[in-house]
User: Fold this.
Amino acid sequence: MRVGYLGPKSSFTYKATRSFFKEAELSPLPTIVSTLKAIEMNQFDYCVIPIENSVEGTVHPALDFLYHQANVPVQAEVILPISQNLMIHPNWIGKINQLKAVKSHPQALAQTQQFLEENYSSLKQEITDSTTQAAKWISDNKDEPVMAIASKEAAKEYQLEIIQSDIQDMKTNQTRFWVIGRKKINWYKEKSPIFRQTIGVKMEQNQAGNLHKILSAFSWRGIDLTKIESRPLKTRLGDYFFLIDIKVENLILVEMALKEITELGGEIKVFGTYYAHQTINC
Ligand SMILES: O=C(O)C(=O)C[C@]1(C(=O)O)C=C[C@@H](O)C=C1
Assistant:
């Protein structure tokens, strides 16, 4: 089995992917969008991307591509604890006050915002396509006065020195990763206490009570929603779709709620109906 993931190797997405696919052949891809395009073009059996962090919220490039362009369903979710670490090239040991910038993925910079503000507010923040790319960059550019925020595994892989570990502002920092592919995954069921469906809903036109209509289709059936967020449709200012996570206890009831919303003028995209599992150690 071949699986693509947001790389490079030792990214958090790699960790999530390996914890899920113990035996598969894994291939790193440079960006979230290239990972999703690869599964669209059938280059892999599955691909894995981050979709939401407990501190920073939805990973927008992933959601936007899945909503607007991709048509491959979510088959499972892996939830991983995320520990962020500040690292430098060993050349800079003893010269930390000469460093000028810190590099990482925007999600990681946001997860450590308070720490950076309190300790390194003069450093320029530079973004990379993944945390591990930041680690790789400082390893490839050892004379540049730049540090990186990434995983412990990335520090090890690129022989960097961790100068402070667990720097995320919230100790319970967690990220949800989606496993996307055309083939159903059944073996995950036993491990997973959570069964959910994620949908995007767009109403035909902006009318008073639109959101209320959507929510009431779930509420009078006793269906629990665990997340709702609005996201620009990108057509013009004021046009949105709603992203909704549904706790599935009775799939038929959920399907009936979706039918009702469609009859009320809603256009629904189902991202997937999937089991989610929290990985403690991997
Ligand atoms: O997988 C990685 O290492 C990433 O850099 C991506 C990503 C994300 O987009 O959320 C993954 C987990 C962490 O929340 C921080 C960054």
Observations:
- The pocket of prephenic acid is lined by residues 6, 11-13, 50, 53, 59, 82, 105, 107-108, 130-132, 175 (CB under 6 Å).
- Residues 115 and 175 are 19 Å apart (CA to CA).
- Residues 2-82+173-190 form a domain with the D-Maltodextrin-Binding Protein; domain 2 fold (CATH 3.40.190.10).
- The chain has nine helices and 15 strands.
